[in-house]
Amino acid sequence: MNQALLFQKLRLRLLRNSWRAMTQQSSMRPLTILLCSAIVWTFIFAISWGGFLFLHTEVGVPLTGEIVGILLDLLFLSLAVLLVFSSGLILYGSLFASPETAFLLSSPVAVDQVFAYKFQGAVAFSSWAFLLLGTPILIAYGLVCEAAWYFYVLLPLFFLGFVLLPGALGGLAALLIVNYVPKRRKQVLSVCLTVLVLVLAGWLYRMVQAAPTELWREEMREAVTRLLSYFQFTRNPLAPSHWVSLGLRRVVRGEIGAALYYLALVWSNGLFLYVIAAAASTRLYRRGYNRMTTGGDLQRFPVLFRGRNHKPAMDNGRLPLAAVGKENHRESWMDYLLYAVLVFVNPRTRLLLIKDFRTFRRDPQQWGQVLAFCGLMLLYFANIRRFVEDVSGPYQNSISFLNLCAVALLLCTYTGRFVYPMLSLEGRRFWILGLLPLKREQLLWGKFAFSMTGGCLIAGGLILVSDLMLLMPAPPILLHLLTVVVLAAGLSGLSVGLGACMPNFRERDPSKIAAGFGGTLNLVAGLLFLLLILGLMAVPWHMEAYLTMMPFLSDRKSEVALLSEGFIGAGVVLGLLAGIACVVLPLRAGIRALREMEF
Amino acid sequence: MIKLDHVSKKYGAKMAVQDLSLDIAAGELFAFLGPNGAGKTTTIKMLCGLLFPTSGAVSIGGYDLRRDGDRARQLLSYVPDQPFLYEKLTGREFLQFIADMYGLPRAQSASRIAEMIELFELHEFIDDLTERYSHGMRQRTVFAAALVHEPRVLIVDEPTVGLDPHSVRRLKDLLRRQADRGTTVFLSSHSLDVVEELADRIAIIEHGRLVACGTLTALREQAAVDGPLEDVFLTLTRPVEDKVTKP
Question: Is the ipTM reported for this complex over the cut 0.95?
């Protein structure tokens, strides 16, 4: 049998069997996944549809013109950058670190066929999010533009051709890094991520600095046009993202010939780059595997308690300084900091937390994402006054609330993506933790403390910067900080508790654990909790602030204030109770599950 | 059938295998012994083409693994110490995948799979997903997959770990039978009793160097020990200072 067909058959069988196993275990699981996906899809579709309609009817922006073109350019360029990184990382993992690799490489299968099989899997896995997040935007665009039927036929073809390019680039990068810098591959990745974040931050800063501060006073269309002129770099005629954007706009205009030209351009370049990557794999894949296995990561990171005679001992609950060798000082200051910050946690549990922290910070895939999101958010908060000259009144009120929502969403993503998989990642080594001379509930409380501390520090810091930049008065700042603490506690409780109730010890990839059934359920529960807490704790104050600014209520301010104070007080109490419930109930369930767990 | 010609392999600055030369004939059951970290698994991975020698050459059935790797791998089967199975395939689907991968015609693959199911007594669970298999069931399935395409070379790394006595007996019979049929069996194991019972020739490697190679009788002579293989192995791999003080 043809080897390419053989792998397609394998993939179909694996998918079919996985689906059967999932539906046999519980029909709720696929239903929940489908339902959640449908809700997210519909939400994005509604927002996009409203947005395009607003641009078209209210602002008067032509939907096939340059402004929307720049927005589409930016969408596809961002997608391309994300796909290069995500497919590169997934390909690196599946080509070099998966247990399947040794099995396939010791068989007589041609190496480029193995690469093709892994490439298809990586591109499909890394770009599925686009289907969920990108298609509603583009379908809404087509509907508002009243595009012909062939727009919806050509849309997936453009997308499929386009994902080949970043996928092949990511694959090539993975092959080259493993072949030529096998000892420094993690560092190279860290540098690439840092450079990307810095470039993005620099560009955002320049854009913000140059943005017209009178944006909200001028003619809206003119101001939008001027602001979007800072996105000109996305319109490079050699950028494939620009070809897709141009092609789709041509389809909408009914210029089918021009659209097909861009489609052909995207596909021919995508296939060409893929052929280069596949050809490179015939020379570099086995060589890279050999390099990585034998000449690769031989470097040993300094570890706090490691050493010939070091033992993980404690000195009356303090970090055992004597155990730290000279060569470790530069690496371990963060451990000291965490150890000091977590002073309220049992010393034994604290040592486990330091282990989790080390695992986290030594994996650039993990902290790179947190750094990127936090950095961008911080940059936006720090420059918020560039956008809004007058930070009093309704702008101050609504922007501070929106910023709180954004920070809450970041917190929800952080706990869902990083905290939920923590227990599952113990994997088959879980018996080591199970045999430790400490109560199993301490494990969960420890992970909860780790998550809550990290969440409070990150989200608290961000919201503080935002509120200070918006010159918010002290009471709402304190209220926002309290909201963030309750959110951090509740979301941590949910993620740690549900993570213990539904562990997945087979999977080693945290993103796959987070994307699984338990992870999805945790995300949905987290979002509901987030809405509840924001509704109870933050909305009453912001509503009061909004209502007191209404001219028709100017003579009834005292009544509004009195009523609102009651709502604010009750909201805070209810929010605190909901937060406590969201810590206690999931953690109790998790502790029960952990006690009964056999390993 | 298997030839290693002055093979050396470096891991960074560390020499994992040094100037190793072996020539193993067809139908021979060859045991490869050594303490932990001696270079056994590295040697096996070079035999499968997973790793490349830093110097020297490895060939299987006359095919050089660097130049004609795919042809060489067509002749061999490798059963690692931690074998891989697709968790979401049934045992039968996995066997079919292996048969297809080695290019067996449909009719031949069907009869070979049936033979393997019979030989390894897989009937009860062959149509279950492999994620539900116990260690013994997995091991039997992996051996069935390794033999389904009738390899000329069978490379086995630590096959007896975690198996019950019945399974070990069955495995020993299988390896012996394979060698008698002309398959070259390259067995790496710490189970010295199994090796003593089965091996035609034994090689002992220590710190990447071949310290002994020959029949059990030859090894006994070299070690000047007239006892079980365990005594011979311990004598030949004893640290140098021990050899000086305890002749």
Answer: no
